[in-house]
Amino acid sequence: MNDDQKKDDQSLVEDDELAQKVAAAQAEAEEEVLDEGGDVDPVSEVDQLKEALARCMADLQNFKRRSEEEKASFVKFANAQLLKSLLPIFDNLNRSIEHLPENLKEDNWTKGVVHVHADLMKTLESLGVKKMKTVGEKLNPNKHEALMSGPGEKDTIVEEFESGYEMNDEVVKPAKVKVGDGS
């Protein structure tokens, strides 16, 4: 049995216990009203308690939903923070492989490093991390950080200085780019 199933089972037990306590309180309240010979109508008292129970149950369900949403949000934030820390290292590894000297390309150690790079890239992709397309794209301030401008079509990216990454369609690291100025 996994943790989620245990939590669900525990929630059901807690819900049953709460319902039993409310039922016991209702029965006790009815007995007190009858014993006192009071003017309070036991049926209306029971209806009020049922309404209070319904509100409590709704509050409990809302609390559970909010807790799950907060937990998911925290996990998403933690993953994004970890990626922000690792992506500069990944970028440096990319640059190292791009500028690999010709005399080292057939070296077995170098081939091993290239395979590690490929495995890391596959792992990131399996986690929903994608490298952004930049060169030839229109500048999007939400995805790109324009560091300079130069000759080229206005507001079109002409060069990429650092790669940008998205995770599940949210920007984790904006791309650092050069943008055309229309000249």
Describe this structure as you would to a colleague.
The protein folds into two domains: 3-80, no CATH class; 129-183, Nucleotide Exchange Factor Grpe, Chain A, domain 2 (Roll), CATH 2.30.22.10. A three-stranded antiparallel sheet has the order 1-4-5. Strands 2-6-3 form a three-stranded mixed sheet, with no helix packed on it. The radius of gyration is 31 Å and the shape is elongated. The model has no long low-confidence stretch (mean pLDDT 85). The protein starts with a helix and ends with a strand. The protein is α+β, with helices and mostly antiparallel strands. The protein has helices spanning 3-36, 42-98, 108-126; strands at residues 129-131, 144-150, 157-162, 165-167, 170-173, 175-180. Helix 1 (3-36) packs antiparallel against helix 2 (42-98). The chain has three helices and six strands, in the order αααββββββ. Helices cover 60% and strands 16% of the residues. A hairpin with a 2-residue loop joins strand 4 and strand 5.
